[in-house]
């Protein structure tokens, strides 16, 4: 049994944000039918590292558990197939530029006429309303517009990519899951669907802690701080004697006192020295140098061991090679090896872990149109001859 058994999802999205929402729903049991353009498919098939099967590693990992169907939207018969799939679905997911669904005659009022219980998830760069609604955008633009990219990098240096260029896509997909699940819950009472409207930039902006209230109240414009954190110190990355980096996080006074003891400098946490947070913030450079000198005289393993013994949060900055060797990752099964079209392939496992209705990976990214015949036959009731004719006419 899966948490979302019986939920039917029609994935019309492209690239990553909307489709990632469908992927997570599918991991927990939802039946996901992904509609793609004949002969072309989702752009995600060509984003990332190429493989011998013709689709990328990103596609194989992120299109898991989906049934791929090809339909030509420009053909009236294709749009009729699409309307029939909307009638079948509980959830319809799209992340076109605003207006595309309207041009197809499939805005939300039209979808409600077909299926009053359908939930429509709409993901776009700037949302479905406002002066910028019609502009295109990708995650990188969302990082810029949300204020995140401005904060990433060294002081006075060029702003850098905040980790993943696709962060806003993944964040929007996760908020999409939340929105869909809430809409499904509401439908239990109302019997009707609704629109879930997500803007890429808003999902990032929502995660920027006190950025907005600090500006509104104090006029404070946070600048790039490298590895540092605005309201606490030491809370940064420090280089070890053997050339690695460790993250150390002291988010309150007691934690700094524990670090001072680990450094064998307990006097640093005295009330008239660096014990109070405000004193440490006023002496940020001094504190960071004290910690950096201590870390720089020890190996990475020594620093981590001493911090953990003192109950100070600390850890090595992991590369993916470190991750593959780590016992915690192995114990949790955070990486799983699945059969794929190119053989065994390591991919991120399903999260979160549910004790009674866990998710699972049933298959990795399918071939383009791999399930067209099955879906048109089993769900839409088309005969083999009818499907053959649709294929001959370029409709599927």
From TrEMBL:
The keyword Transmembrane does not apply. It comes from the Bacteria. GO terms for molecular function: CoA-transferase activity. Pfam families: CoA_transf_3. The keyword Transferase applies. Keywords: Transferase. PANTHER family: SUCCINATE--HYDROXYMETHYLGLUTARATE COA-TRANSFERASE. This is Carnitine dehydratase. It comes from Pseudofrankia asymbiotica.
């Amino acid at each position: 049994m899966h948490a979302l058994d019986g939920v039917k999802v029609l994935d019309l999205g492209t690239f990553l944000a909307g489709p990632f929402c469908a992927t997570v729903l599918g991991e927990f049991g939802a039946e996901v039918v992904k509609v793609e353009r004949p002969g072309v498919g989702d752009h995600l098939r060509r984003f990332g590292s190429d493989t011998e099967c013709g689709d990328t590693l990103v596609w194989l990992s992120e299109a898991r558990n989906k049934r791929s169907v090809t339909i030509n939207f420009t053909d009236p018969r294709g749009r009729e197939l699409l309307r029939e799939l909307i009638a079948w679905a509980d959830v319809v997911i799209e992340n076109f530029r605003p207006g595309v669904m309207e041009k197809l005659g499939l805005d939300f009022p039209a979808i409600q006429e077909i299926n009053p219980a359908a939930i429509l998830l709409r993901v776009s760069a700037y949302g479905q309303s406002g002066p910028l609604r019609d502009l295109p955008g990708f995650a990188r633009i969302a990082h810029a517009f949300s204020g995140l990219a401005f904060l990433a990098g060294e002081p006075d240096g060029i702003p850098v990519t905040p980790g993943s260029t696709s962060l806003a896509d993944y964040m929007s997909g996760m908020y999409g899951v939340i929105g869909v699940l809430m809409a499904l819950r509401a439908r239990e009472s109302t019997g009707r669907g609704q629109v879930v409207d997500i803007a890429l930039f808003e999902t990032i902006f929502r995660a920027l802690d006190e950025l907005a209230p600090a500006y509104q109240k104090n006029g404070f414009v946070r600048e790039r701080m490298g590895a540092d954190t605005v309201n606490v110190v030491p809370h940064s990355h420090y280089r070890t004697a053997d050339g690695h980096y460790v993250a150390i996080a002291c988010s309150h006074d007691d934690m700094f006192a524990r670090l001072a003891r680990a450094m064998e400098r307990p006097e640093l946490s005295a009330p008239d020295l660096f014990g109070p947070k405000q004193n440490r913030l006023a002496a940020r450079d001094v504190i960071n140098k004290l910690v950096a000198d201590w870390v720089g005289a020890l190996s990475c393993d020594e620093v981590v061991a001493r911090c953990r013994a003192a109950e100070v949060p600390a850890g090595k900055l992991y590369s993916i090679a470190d991750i593959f060797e780590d016992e915690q990752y192995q114990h949790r099964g955070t990486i799983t090896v699945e059969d794929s079209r190119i053989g065994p392939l390591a991919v991120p496992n399903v999260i979160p872990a549910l004790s009674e209705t866990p998710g699972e990976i049933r298959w990795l990214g399918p071939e383009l149109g791999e399930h067209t015949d099955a879906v048109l036959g089993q769900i839409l009731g088309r005969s083999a001859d009818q499907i053959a004719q649709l294929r001959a006419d370029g409709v599927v």
